[in-house]
């Protein structure tokens, strides 16, 4: 994000919040009937930047944290969430990037299960990343593992940033933006999804920032207006050893479930943000309040912050995608 973002955003949590030295970050979010907001974030005992040498295993030590904001977006309550019902908790595994959505009247979370492999005495690295779906009991503060989504094609060893949303009585999975791949839940018991759309949307989405890196999804879809759903996508710009995240807003047509419009420039970019890694800003959720949108994000893999944009600030930035150019 640009440096002025610090003046236009608010910190909700960070290093030492809830007793977690590494910080609290990357929140999933849902609006509450009270006008408040429910968050589910990652609370980390040690920032990965410091999890080296004799502290390498500290990267695996963290918990999901449930935070309730009131209608003024102030913290009303916090609770460390218990992980129950057959979570595949084994040595070298941790859970992160909790996103929230509603399905059949319940609060569900999509998140990652990350396997860590020790490279040598001084460091560890990702070994695999597997998407998960869990159910959040907000009264008990408990997260129940439901399973790993099953898809009808071959996947990679590292899979992240799958998105989920409910439309009517159906549950959909957004897998990729380029090519665009959308799946629908076929079997609830096995969490099996089948592809309903798989198509090339043109060059516009293949390298949106011109950085030559993968384009990934950021936020579960929310309602933008009567015609569109809103999602964010991101692309990483590499400068030497540093990574800078850029986020664009995309509107998905409710009727066709295809992307129709995209902002011509990023609405958030990771320059000079908070934390030890000032290029990392990861917008993980959006909450709509009439014509105002609250973007909740992780900064530097250590902070939860939010920024607010009105519809009239976003709307002029949209351009059509492909045949929908306007």
Describe this structure in words.
- The chain has 326 residues and is an all-beta fold.
- It has helices spanning 5-8, 311-314; strands at 9-13, 23-31, 37-44, 62-69, 75-80, 82-84, 93-103, 106-120, 123-137, 142-147, 163-167, 170-177, 180-187, 192-199, 215-217, 222-223, 228-239, 242-253, 259-263, 268-269, 281-289, 292-299, 303-310, 318-320.
- The chain is globular and about 50 Å long.
- Strands 15, 16, 17, 18, 19, 20 and 24 form a 7-stranded antiparallel sheet that branches.
- The chain has one domain (12-317): Glycosyl hydrolase domain, family 43 (Tachylectin-2, Chain A, 5 Propeller), CATH 2.115.10.20.
- The mean pLDDT is 90.
- It contains 2 helices and 24 strands.
List the keywords.
five-stranded mixed sheet, 2% helix, 2 helices, seven-stranded antiparallel sheet, Tachylectin-2, Chain A, mainly beta, 326 residues
